[in-house]
Amino acid sequence: MDLGTGNQWSSVSQAGLGSANHVLDALSVPIAGNLAGLELLQKRDAVILVDMPLQEKALIARIRRTTRQGSRSIIAGIGDDAAVLRLPPGHEVLVTTDFSLEGVHFRPEWHPPDVVGWRCLTRGLSDIAAMGGEPQAAFLSLALPKKLAQRWVDRFIDGMMRLASQFEISLAGGDTAQSPDGILADIVVVGSVPRGKAVMRSGAKPGDRIYVTGELGGGSAALDEFYAGRKAMPRDFARHFYPLPRIAIGRFLRAKGLASAMIDLSDGLSTDLAHICEESGVGAEILREAIPLASVGRQGTQVKLRHALHGGDDYELLFTVPRGKPVPSRIAGVPVTLIGHMRGRASIVLRNDKGVGVALKPRGWEHFKP
Ligand SMILES: [Mg+2]
């Protein structure tokens, strides 16, 4: 019997020892397109089961039903051993993978399941946006505790599919397993970009202007509410609950040849700007008063500067543009703000409007640590 490779939701599943019949092998199967992160999902004593638990069958059926059909890039998707993708001619492949872990990236008591699904896919799409790419297909690996209610899983999938349909991408495969502890989701997004045109973190030069899209700090400001024991409502903290990846802006900047370097703000401005500086071998200077602070809460209160500087989860784009190249004040309907410039000296300075500068150390998002 052909067991397949198990990486495409097909007929083979993996689970812990002793959970069902038809134990064929005491070793875990090699997984096609194996990713370093998958090791976490596999216990060394994992076994192969020919019969899937009903819940898993239902899950795969549901994903298959709800995922968008008729994607031009997916020749074969869920149900085969591996997905077959066709990318536009003259394009290169972008691949990104991101974990969403219970207790690390989300908390079930704070985040409704559809929000967890939405945010999980945002993380992957945002990385494709930051390269100036087009998302083509997504792959989801889920490890779920045995006792998790099917309703949680259904709503997780619904949230993810809602975002997927906005960006016209489909789930083309994945894997499921039983988690010994906590919910683990890994999203892989495959994208494409015209050959040689991917916007890297490494292209910034001294003198380049630094821009950000949208407003900053809205992604993490909701955490203040949670930690204070208050309920943060999705309508008041949209950027936290339903962040949108900036695909159209990344595409525009790449197509116009404007951005010399780009990154998405997933960890926070101080940390993500440091990534550009490090990869480009340059430093930066930003103006405190220029940083666009998000408005949150029912009253539309401006977030604290620390959220804009160090909070994560904004999924806006941070990019550099050679001096003298004009940049529109809005791209795809989103404001774009000049916040500083790159410089030769390898450190980051935060200057106020009186000209006083302080060193800005990377103190980005620390995974829900208060
Ligand atoms: Mg990124």
Keywords:
370 residues, alpha+beta, 60s Ribosomal Protein L30, Chain: A, four-stranded mixed β-sheet, 18 strands, globular, disordered N terminus, binds magnesium ion
Ions, cofactors and other ligands present here are: magnesium ion
CATH architecture of the largest domain: Alpha-Beta Complex
CATH topology description of the largest domain: Phosphoribosyl-aminoimidazole Synthetase, Chain A, domain 2
Structural domain count: 2
Beta content: 25-35%
Explained architecture:
The protein is globular, with a radius of gyration of 22 Å. Residues 1-6 and 11-51 have low confidence and may be disordered. Helix 1 packs parallel to helix 3 and helix 2 runs parallel beside helix 6. The protein has helices at residues 54-66, 113-130, 150-166, 218-227, 238-241, 247-255, 269-280, 305-310, and strands at 13-15, 47-49, 74-76, 84-85, 91-101, 134-144, 171-178, 184-194, 209-213, 261-264, 283-287, 295-296, 301-302, 317-321, 330-331, 334-343, 348-351, 357-359. It is built from eight helices and 18 strands. Helices cover 24% and strands 25% of the residues. The longest helix has 18 residues, at 113-130. The strands form five sheets. Strands 9, 10, 11, 14, 15, 16, 17 and 18 form an eight-stranded mixed beta sheet that branches. The chain folds into two domains: 52-194, PurM-like, N-terminal domain (60s Ribosomal Protein L30, Chain: A, 2-Layer Sandwich), CATH 3.30.1330; 209-359, Phosphoribosyl-aminoimidazole Synthetase, Chain A, domain 2. The chain is an alpha+beta fold and 370 residues long. The site of magnesium ion has 5 residues, from helix 2 and strand 10.
